Amino acid sequence: MSRAPIEDDCGIGQALNIVGEWRTLLVLRNLFNGMRTFDAMQSHLGISSSVLAARLKTLSEAGIVEKRPLPEDGRSHEYRLTDKGLDLYPVLVALLHWGEKWTPNGRGPRMTLTERATGLPVRDMAVTAQDGRPLGPREVTPVPGPGASDYTRALTARWANKREETV
Description:
This protein is mainly α. The chain has seven helices and two strands, in the order H-H-H-H-E-E-H-H-H. The longest helix has 17 residues, at 150-166.
Protein backbone atom coordinates (compact mmCIF):
# COMPACT_ATOMS: atom_id res chain seq x y z
CA MET A 1 0.00 0.00 0.00
CA SER A 2 1.55 3.30 -1.02
CA ARG A 3 0.93 6.51 0.81
CA ALA A 4 0.52 10.02 -0.46
CA PRO A 5 3.69 12.11 -0.27
CA ILE A 6 4.05 14.58 2.55
CA GLU A 7 3.28 17.95 1.02
CA ASP A 8 4.35 20.45 3.68
CA ASP A 9 7.60 22.31 3.09
CA CYS A 10 9.52 20.74 5.96
CA GLY A 11 12.94 19.10 5.88
CA ILE A 12 11.72 16.20 8.01
CA GLY A 13 8.62 15.65 5.88
CA GLN A 14 10.58 15.78 2.65
CA ALA A 15 13.21 13.37 4.01
CA LEU A 16 10.45 10.98 5.06
CA ASN A 17 9.12 11.01 1.50
CA ILE A 18 12.38 9.29 0.56
CA VAL A 19 13.46 7.23 3.58
CA GLY A 20 10.31 7.07 5.74
CA GLU A 21 9.14 3.61 4.76
CA TRP A 22 10.56 1.26 7.41
CA ARG A 23 12.01 -1.24 4.96
CA THR A 24 13.99 1.58 3.34
CA LEU A 25 15.85 2.13 6.60
CA LEU A 26 16.65 -1.59 6.75
CA VAL A 27 17.96 -1.48 3.17
CA LEU A 28 20.16 1.45 4.19
CA ARG A 29 21.33 -0.45 7.28
CA ASN A 30 22.37 -3.36 5.07
CA LEU A 31 24.16 -1.08 2.62
CA PHE A 32 26.07 0.56 5.48
CA ASN A 33 27.05 -2.91 6.66
CA GLY A 34 28.53 -3.81 3.28
CA MET A 35 25.68 -5.68 1.61
CA ARG A 36 25.72 -4.74 -2.07
CA THR A 37 23.58 -7.07 -4.17
CA PHE A 38 19.83 -7.29 -4.66
CA ASP A 39 19.79 -11.04 -3.97
CA ALA A 40 21.75 -10.70 -0.72
CA MET A 41 19.46 -7.92 0.53
CA GLN A 42 16.30 -9.78 -0.46
CA SER A 43 17.47 -12.96 1.24
CA HIS A 44 18.50 -11.14 4.42
CA LEU A 45 15.44 -8.90 4.68
CA GLY A 46 12.91 -11.51 3.61
CA ILE A 47 10.87 -9.04 1.56
CA SER A 48 9.40 -9.48 -1.89
CA SER A 49 11.50 -8.59 -4.90
CA SER A 50 8.94 -5.96 -5.95
CA VAL A 51 9.11 -4.19 -2.58
CA LEU A 52 12.91 -4.25 -2.53
CA ALA A 53 13.07 -3.06 -6.15
CA ALA A 54 10.74 -0.17 -5.30
CA ARG A 55 12.83 0.83 -2.26
CA LEU A 56 16.07 0.71 -4.28
CA LYS A 57 14.47 2.65 -7.13
CA THR A 58 13.37 5.41 -4.74
CA LEU A 59 16.84 5.58 -3.19
CA SER A 60 18.45 5.61 -6.63
CA GLU A 61 16.17 8.33 -8.01
CA ALA A 62 16.88 10.42 -4.90
CA GLY A 63 20.62 10.10 -5.50
CA ILE A 64 21.18 8.13 -2.27
CA VAL A 65 22.38 4.93 -3.93
CA GLU A 66 24.00 4.23 -7.24
CA LYS A 67 23.31 1.06 -9.20
CA ARG A 68 26.44 -0.27 -10.90
CA PRO A 69 27.01 -3.34 -13.06
CA LEU A 70 29.15 -5.95 -11.34
CA PRO A 71 32.50 -6.17 -13.15
CA GLU A 72 32.52 -9.98 -13.19
CA ASP A 73 28.96 -10.27 -14.53
CA GLY A 74 27.56 -7.49 -16.71
CA ARG A 75 23.99 -8.68 -16.06
CA SER A 76 24.13 -8.38 -12.26
CA HIS A 77 24.34 -5.14 -10.33
CA GLU A 78 25.54 -3.83 -7.03
CA TYR A 79 24.24 -0.89 -5.06
CA ARG A 80 26.59 1.65 -3.50
CA LEU A 81 25.84 4.58 -1.23
CA THR A 82 26.60 7.99 -2.73
CA ASP A 83 27.90 10.91 -0.67
CA LYS A 84 24.26 11.90 -0.17
CA GLY A 85 23.55 8.40 1.11
CA LEU A 86 26.61 8.37 3.38
CA ASP A 87 25.26 11.54 5.00
CA LEU A 88 22.39 9.41 6.37
CA TYR A 89 24.81 7.48 8.60
CA PRO A 90 24.22 9.63 11.71
CA VAL A 91 20.47 9.11 11.30
CA LEU A 92 20.84 5.33 11.36
CA VAL A 93 23.34 5.46 14.23
CA ALA A 94 20.91 7.63 16.24
CA LEU A 95 18.13 5.08 15.58
CA LEU A 96 20.44 2.24 16.62
CA HIS A 97 21.38 3.98 19.87
CA TRP A 98 17.75 4.86 20.61
CA GLY A 99 16.64 1.30 19.88
CA GLU A 100 19.31 -0.23 22.09
CA LYS A 101 18.38 2.11 24.95
CA TRP A 102 14.59 1.99 24.72
CA THR A 103 13.85 -1.43 23.17
CA PRO A 104 16.37 -3.74 24.84
CA ASN A 105 16.09 -7.49 24.42
CA GLY A 106 17.14 -8.33 27.97
CA ARG A 107 20.36 -10.08 26.89
CA GLY A 108 22.50 -6.99 26.42
CA PRO A 109 23.24 -4.77 23.44
CA ARG A 110 22.47 -6.34 20.07
CA MET A 111 25.09 -4.16 18.42
CA THR A 112 27.71 -1.67 19.48
CA LEU A 113 29.74 0.55 17.21
CA THR A 114 33.45 0.90 17.79
CA GLU A 115 36.06 3.13 16.23
CA ARG A 116 38.35 1.08 14.00
CA ALA A 117 41.52 2.91 15.01
CA THR A 118 41.04 2.54 18.78
CA GLY A 119 38.47 -0.21 19.28
CA LEU A 120 36.61 2.10 21.65
CA PRO A 121 32.81 2.44 21.49
CA VAL A 122 31.50 5.52 19.72
CA ARG A 123 29.46 7.99 21.74
CA ASP A 124 25.71 8.09 21.46
CA MET A 125 24.43 10.57 18.89
CA ALA A 126 23.53 13.92 20.38
CA VAL A 127 22.60 17.43 19.40
CA THR A 128 25.55 19.55 20.44
CA ALA A 129 26.35 23.22 20.91
CA GLN A 130 29.13 24.83 18.91
CA ASP A 131 31.52 24.05 21.79
CA GLY A 132 30.50 20.36 21.86
CA ARG A 133 28.18 20.43 24.89
CA PRO A 134 25.15 18.14 24.51
CA LEU A 135 21.84 20.01 24.24
CA GLY A 136 18.35 18.79 25.06
CA PRO A 137 15.15 19.86 23.28
CA ARG A 138 14.48 22.60 25.88
CA GLU A 139 17.82 24.18 25.02
CA VAL A 140 17.24 24.45 21.27
CA THR A 141 14.96 26.84 19.40
CA PRO A 142 13.83 26.19 15.83
CA VAL A 143 14.25 29.33 13.76
CA PRO A 144 12.87 29.65 10.23
CA GLY A 145 15.55 29.98 7.60
CA PRO A 146 15.51 32.07 4.44
CA GLY A 147 13.78 29.29 2.51
CA ALA A 148 11.02 28.78 5.08
CA SER A 149 7.43 28.67 3.90
CA ASP A 150 4.61 30.49 5.66
CA TYR A 151 3.63 27.11 7.12
CA THR A 152 7.11 26.64 8.64
CA ARG A 153 7.16 30.20 9.96
CA ALA A 154 3.78 29.67 11.65
CA LEU A 155 4.87 26.31 13.06
CA THR A 156 8.11 27.66 14.53
CA ALA A 157 6.25 30.67 15.99
CA ARG A 158 3.81 28.28 17.66
CA TRP A 159 6.70 26.18 18.99
CA ALA A 160 8.46 29.24 20.38
CA ASN A 161 5.34 30.20 22.37
CA LYS A 162 4.54 26.70 23.67
CA ARG A 163 7.97 25.07 23.84
CA GLU A 164 8.47 25.27 27.59
CA GLU A 165 5.14 23.65 28.36
CA THR A 166 5.32 20.85 25.78
CA VAL A 167 8.89 19.55 25.90
